[in-house]
């Protein structure tokens, strides 16, 4: 199977003639460190969120059939979050050589995933190709 990784977003490539995918782009902020500072945009997250209501009797149905079209109940719900981290572009250099040693760190509530031991040395454009699952309970 042939695959190609492009150096930029697909939307900006002329060969795709204005192609847009199903994902949305969300700005990422560093946050305020002082009261009078504004949030600084430090990157973008491109992804898609869907909420499915699954029970024991419908877990084998196709995903689209399980898509929730109404608000969830106020009961305690067990959730499974799947996160795909594909790659990053133009990360801020942290090393004296103008590069970084990026790694993935994800925190959701009290759950923290840190793959610092799998960092990618000397790059500001890492290709991670990682998949993470996090289970948690919403009250």
Task: Please characterize this protein's 3D structure.
With 139 residues, the protein is an all-beta fold. The protein folds into two domains: 40 residues, no CATH class; 89 residues, C2 domain (Immunoglobulin-like). It is built from no helices and six strands. A hairpin with a 2-residue loop joins β4 and β5.
So, CATH architecture of the largest domain? Answer: Sandwich
- In CATH, the homologous superfamily of the largest domain goes by the name C2 domain
Question: What class, by secondary structure content?
Answer: mainly beta
**Strands side by side in the biggest sheet:** 1-2
Please report the first level of CATH classification, the CATH class of the largest domain: Mainly Beta
Structural domains: how many: 2
Assembly form of the protein: single chain
- CATH topology heading of the largest domain: Immunoglobulin-like
How widely separated are the two ends? 44 Å
The main sheet comes to: 2 strands, antiparallel
Number of helices: 0
Kindly provide the radius of gyration, computed on alpha-carbon positions and rounded to a whole number of angstroms: 19 Å
Shape: globular
Taken in chain order, the helices and strands follow as EEEEEE
Structure characteristics:
two-stranded antiparallel ribbon, two-stranded antiparallel sheet, 139 residues, Immunoglobulin-like, globular, mainly beta
């Amino acid at each position: 199977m042939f695959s190609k990784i492009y150096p930029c977003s697909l939307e900006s490539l002329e060969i795709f003639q204005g192609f847009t995918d199903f994902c949305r782009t969300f700005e990422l902020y560093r946050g305020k460190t002082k009261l009078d500072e504004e949030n600084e945009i430090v990157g973008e997250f491109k992804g898609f969120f869907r909420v499915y209501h699954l029970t024991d009797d419908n877990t084998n149905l196709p995903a689209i059939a399980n898509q929730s079209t109404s608000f969830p109940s106020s009961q305690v719900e067990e959730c499974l979050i799947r996160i795909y981290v594909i790659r990053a572009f133009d990360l801020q250099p942290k090393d004296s050589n103008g590069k970084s040693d990026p790694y993935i760190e994800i925190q959701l509530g009290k759950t923290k995933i840190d793959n610092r031991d799998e960092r990618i040395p000397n790059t500001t454009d890492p290709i991670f190709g990682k998949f993470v699952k996090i289970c948690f309970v919403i009250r």
